[in-house]
Amino acid sequence: MKITNAYVHITSPGRNFVTLKVETDAGLYGLGDGTLNGRELAVASYLTDHLVPCLIGRDPFQSEDIWQYFYRGAYWRRGPVTMAAIGAIDVALWDIKGKALNTPVYNLLGGKSREGVMVYAHANGKDIDHALEDVAHHKELGYKAIRVQSGFPGLASTYGVPKGPGRYEPAERGLPPEYDWATEPYLRHVPRLFARVREQFGEELHLLHDCHHRLTPIEAARLGKELEPFHLFWLEDPTPAELQDGFRIIREHTTTPIAVGEVFNSVWDAHDLVRNQWIDYLRMTITHGGGITAIKKAADFAGMYHVRTGFHGPTDLSPVCMAAALHFDTAIHNFGIQEHMAHTDETDAVFPHQYFFKDGYMFPGDGPGLGVDLDEARAKKYPYQRAYLPVNRKLDGTLTDW
Questions:
Q1: Were both Cys, which of 32, 82, 235, 370 would link to 323 (CB 3.0–4.6 Å)?
Q2: 212 is annotated as an active-site residue
């Protein structure tokens, strides 16, 4: 079997997605997700102009060699654009292999390690009372794990909370919006939020919270320590991770589990974090981490140090990525939890899929390959629209981490 062609499809059913379709002379094709929120066209160009010409004529079963060719052969390694492009190719090849062998991808990764994949939902509100209402809503839907965010006094809006009615979508059309940020009122507010959640819902519900890289290590240590009585499943992205050693400070001061990595694109981004056991969950995605081939190596490395996976699963990654993640989650031993933000009906129609949610768990389906497809005619109805993630400034105007 040989690869005969590959095409990049860009569609925007509510938000932008980059999908790679790889075709073979056997009549089989595979899909990969190359979406990079706010930088979609860069990945599309990298694929079309640089990688796809080198892919034609290769055997799709040689996914390890192809991955090494695009990672090592380019000389310029890593980076989110490069790794998202390589990830799109790699996932498409695994999809083809599953279809050629008439088996789901999880069987190519060792078979099932579990029957269902526990997922967590997002609950939010403009204040604590509204957040509690949303927690109750998601609990009624069957979720056993819920990430909780709420607005707090002093800021008109904050991360994880929609500005108005409807679902939360961080990327906005046009140029990047600018948000305000204030750390001290946030640090005072979050323990109050989780005290109320535990008071109302008890201890059985798994609770998570995302700091979104906004704290210094010692601020994160303070928050983690103050949240210990509420037994969080994890505290996510407490501080930027360029300085991996900063997580040592957090670990020394709190037993609240730490999750990090949604912006990582290589195992090297987490090398010290994992081997020093400064984190508990690695969140690097299948798409941005270079595909299944690379993430399998990262997960195996993490497992040696008692670190589990907790893949990023936002709406700015397509159902192709979600399908790949669910197959991976089903197979690997050191799975922890999977983020789940439900896509819009329009997105689900563009990407029909076999995976489904039931009673707090998701299931990848048992069809060959990934079990997800692309309705190309429908996708063409949603042309690309420029959109960016926000920029964050402190109240005095200083640019800070979003």
A1: 370
A2: yes
